[in-house]
Amino acid sequence: MNELLDLVSATARLGGPLALAAMGGLLSERSGVVNIALEGAMLASACACGMVSAATGSTALGLFAGLVAAVIVCLLHALAVLGFRIDHIVSGIAANAVAFGVTGFAIKVAVQRGAELKFTPLPQIVYIACALILPVVIAFMIQRTVFGLRINAVGNSGSKSAEMGVNPIRVRLVALFGCGLLTGLAGAMLVSQPEHFTANMTAGKGFIALAALILGGWRPIPAMIAAFAFGLFDALQIRLQGTPMLGVEVPSQFWASLPYVITLIALAGFLGKSKPPAALGRE
Amino acid sequence: MRHLRSSKSSKVFPVDRSNASFIRMQGITKRFGNVTANASVDLDVAKGSIHAIVGENGAGKSTLMRILYGLYKPDSGSISIDGEEKSFKSPQDAIASGIGMVSQHYAIIPELSCIDNLILGAEGSALIDRNTIIERATNLASALGFEFDWYAIAGDMSPSAAQKLEIAKLLWRESNILILDEPTAMLSPEDSAALYTNLRTLADAGRTVIVVTHRLEEVMDYCERVTVMRNGKVVANEETAQTTSKRLAELIVGGELTFERERPAVPGRVSLSLREFSVQGDRGDRAVDINAFELRESEVVGVAGVDGNGQKELIESLIGIRPYLGVAKYYDRELGGLSVAQRLEDGLAIVPEDRQLQGLIGSWSVADNAILGLHRRQPISNGWRMDRSACIAVTEDIVRRFSTKVSSFGAPIASLSGGNQQRFVVARALEGSPKLLIAFQPARGLDIRGSSEVYAEIRRRCSMGMCALIVSFDLDELLEHCDRIVVMFRGKASEPPHGLQSDRHAVGRMMVGLSP
Question: Residue ranges per domain, chain B?
């Protein structure tokens, strides 16, 4: 029984950041902007949140810094894609590289100077609640509000939306701002588990969140379920490490690769069925 | 006028035809680079009328309408609506002044539902209550006798239903000025007539309608006034009751139209024959189901029909990018056994449906596009080597055929205007003496002159032994230029009975599944 509770709690903690980042990706991609910068935005947020919290001793200030950092990464992506019409994937790679470099440099300098990195985070339950409630809020927003309709419209055709008096650039900017807040929350949740920042601590979680988004067919609730399913596999692999299977010692790397293998299989199986927004990455 | 009421206001437009210039555009000039699209254009439109604007491609009609709709800002000139000076910075400003536009390609987003398309950009409150909205929308639509399945996905609608949704969108926005760009380009004659009946109802209720069109019969039958544009200027402004379509045609091209029609030659050997021929559509349906069809040398056969009745699938299977069942003989060989390359080599030529998607590579140069599909031929290809000078020679030939305007052979093909791209694609298909031309809307987007040139050339080739299968949604075009018409309806092909072969109404009825 205790074991099961442990597994549930681990699933929530590991799946939460994925679900939050997936929601950020949902806002961005439903509006037509491919966003592989989820990874970089999460990493930037985790770094800013962890280091500012530790430096100031204020959890609130740290969280705010995390949100700001992720919003900056997303808006940089927006500037490149919407302003300079750079290919979405290329811009995403660049944003990730910048986030990776800047955070890596920051933590290196902090460690060299012997700065305090440990901080007291918000209780996990706050983040978990966000990860469970926000998808519902976003689902409602997409279905029942003007902003949701407009995101949907520009995500399928920016030029036709413009003819109907909807400014696609503005809608996408707001969507990417929202994406920044959500990935910021995801990064803050991530860093509040070890309670200190380590270099490249996202380790591909942004991409897993993107996979969850695609698996969920760009819909909020299914994407959230997919994110927590990945969380479950992650929790399982940690528990399964070191357990012999049928008397054979399985290398821990095998288990560590499990969530990624599942992602690959799931994407291969589901990708044909889930339909991306028509203008995704094209405008 | 209950259907006009909305949360914002309830306006009633009194019919007042005495006000001769409800819309007044004066001295409108617009330049794009060194091209003057509109040169000091004046336009006066009376309230409650249907006003037509006609002209060749590039005459500046669309530019003028885009200025009125706030999509372009004029370099100089003024616009006033109902005596009030206006300056539109964006479509939002124009919409706020009661102007609505239906563009040729429709601003319907196919992935959204009908109701979402209807309200997009004019949703009312921040929260969307679709039940209340649908109630109001249904009231509004029923005033014109329209019915919609509001939750259906808009992409599944027929062209005429989409057109109705576009008009409903304008009414939803309380537009009292309706601009329609080529509204009947995709409609059957029956649907076109119904559209104008609806526009007349709206005009009688006090709304003002501006129609940009190529079809002079429509202008003569349904519009009150007509403005003729040529080379960016207004050349005439007439009441349709005081003019003739012949005079309009002359005004449009700036002189008399003299195209000698060559007499159809006597049909020769059977070139293409289909038997028990069926093709599967994208949704697994039987998109084409033809019992028997023959095309002989020297024949020009038109395939009439409303878009989406299997024309696309028929053409794709003939050119070899979609499989078929049954028999399709090209001379004495089965088409199915030939690859696309072999078909091209054996004299099949193609004008694809969408020139940008299937006919041209936009970022490539004019010269590189010229040899697409011809690239395996001597002397362009010398075994393993491309002969650049031969490529240039071919490009010159193609560009000269319909006097396509290009700045240089190295310029990207996307820099050409739509009409010039179309001329280019047709000329390329005719390069190298093909035996069978399969053309999807060969005169798409071309004006009277361009369209006549294209068909005259096809006719000339056919008198020398080529044959042509031409798909078009413009029935009048087919009736004018083809020897024979085949009507496609839900994948079935049928010919009008003897005596009604060129009867516009009989063919029109067959296009919507009625008996001729």
Answer: 2-107+177-259, 261-338+433-516, 360-432
Taken in order of first residue, the domains within chain A and their CATH numbers are: 2-270 (1.10.3470)
Of B90, B123, B129, the CB nearest to A149: B123
Complete DSSP assignment for chain A: -HHHHHHHHHHHHHHHHHHHHHHHHHHHHHTT---TTHHHHHHHHHHHHHHHHHHH--HHHHHHHHHHHHHHHHHHHHIIIIIS---HHHHHHHHHHHHHHHHHHHHHHHHHTT------PPPHHHHHHHHHHHHHHHHHHHHHBHHHHHHHHHHH-HHHHHHTT--HHHHHHHHHHHHHHHHHHHHHHHHTTTTS--TTTTTTHHHHHHHHHHHTTT-HHHHHHHHHHHHHHHHHHHHHTT--BTTBPPPHHHHHHHHHHHHHHHHHHHTTTS---TTTTT-
Tokens matching residue A223: 């994407």
How many residue pairs from chains A and B have C-beta atoms closer than 8 A? 62
Residue B305 has pLDDT above 70, yes or no: yes
Distance between CA atoms of B347 and B333, rounded to whole angstroms?
A: 13
Equal CATH topology for B2-107+177-259 and B261-338+433-516: yes
Are residues A144 and B127, on separate chains, in Cβ contact within 8 Å?
yes
* CATH tag, B261-338+433-516: 3.40.50.300
CB contact under 8 A, B91 and A146: no
- Which positions ≥6 away from B210 have C-beta within 8 Å? B23, B45, B51, B52, B53, B65, B68, B177, B178, B179, B180
Rounded Cα–Cα distance for residues B307 and B29 (Å): 37
Determine the distance in angstroms separating the CA of B109 from the nearest CA of chain A, rounded to an integer: 6
Q: B2-107+177-259: which CATH topology?
A: Rossmann fold (3.40.50)
**What value does the mean pLDDT take over residues B367-387?**
85
What amino acid is encoded at A216 in this protein? G
Q: pLDDT confidence of B261, banded at 50, 70, 90?
A: low
What is the β-pairing status of strands B467-471 and B300-304?
A: parallel
Which residue among B92, B108, B111 sits closest to A165, beta carbon to beta carbon? Answer: B92
At position A260, the amino acid (one-letter code) is Y
**Which 3 state secondary structure label does DSSP give B64?**
helix
User: How confident is the prediction along chain A (283 residues), in pLDDT tens digits per residue?
Assistant: 788 899 999 999 999 999 999 999 999 999 999 999 999 999 999 999 999 999 999 999 999 999 999 999 999 999 999 999 999 999 999 999 999 999 999 999 999 998 889 999 999 999 999 999 999 999 999 999 999 999 999 999 998 898 888 899 999 999 999 999 999 999 999 999 999 999 999 989 999 999 999 989 899 999 999 999 999 988 988 888 877 777 777 788 888 888 778 777 877 776 556 778 888 888 7
Q: Please tell me the distance in Å from B62's CA to the nearest CA on chain A.
A: 14
Distance from the A147 Cα atom to the nearest Cα atom in chain B, whole angstroms: 7
Beta-carbon contacts of residue B440 (< 8 Å; ≥ 6 apart): B311, B312, B315, B351, B352, B353, B471, B472
* pLDDT in the model for residue B289: 93
Under the banding of pLDDT at 50, 70 and 90, the label for residue B263 is: low
Backbone angles phi, psi at B96, to 5 degrees: -65, -25
- Express each pLDDT in B121-135 by its tens digit: 888 888 899 999 999
